Amino acid sequence: MAERRIIKVRKRIALVAHDNKKKDLSDWAFYNRAELARHELMATGTTGKMLEERLDRPVQKLLSGPLGGDQQLGALIAEGKVDVLVFFWDPMEAQPHDSDVKALLRLGVAWNILLACDRASADFILTSPLMQEEYETIIPDYSGYLKRKL
Predict the structure, then answer these.
(1) Domain harbouring 127, CATH code
(2) Is the overall model pTM greater than 0.90, yes or no?
(3) What digits encode the pLDDT tens for the residues 61-112?
(4) Active-site residue (options: 27, 70, 83, 123)
(5) Which of 13, 24, 47, 96 is exposed most, by the fewest CB atoms within 10 A?
(6) How far apart are CA 125 and CA 114, in angstroms?
(7) Integer Cα distance of 75 and 80 in angstroms
(8) How many domains does the chain have?
(9) Nearest 5°: phi and psi at 25?
């Protein structure tokens, strides 16, 4: 039977952006600052510093993505400590840490968290009525996968 997890009213939102998308994420966050103020924000290093200054509110800052921040965030996702991942990545620009980026996106899907990779998806998630209430999410059961691997 699949495990369930309650996502509380105050969501834990991780914000990440590639260099070419930092301004887009900053503009989106500023536009949605009143709604984001209701939630706990975390971000990889450079993005977190930028957002903290722009939003004039605290943001839990991890390391810079290429220096381990993506892995820190992935661990938080696997531990059930992230409810929403807003990751504005640049589809036209190869990243030196592409494997980290793919791993982060894979973990978001694997642990069934809300995941937005562009402004339209982020807008739909943030304005959903479900953002204003507790939500019970199903955590996929990977026991069969783990048995096959052992």
Answers:
(1) 3.40.50.1380
(2) yes
(3) 999 988 899 999 999 999 999 999 999 988 887 766 677 788 899 999 999 9
(4) 70
(5) 96
(6) 8
(7) 9
(8) 1
(9) -65, -40
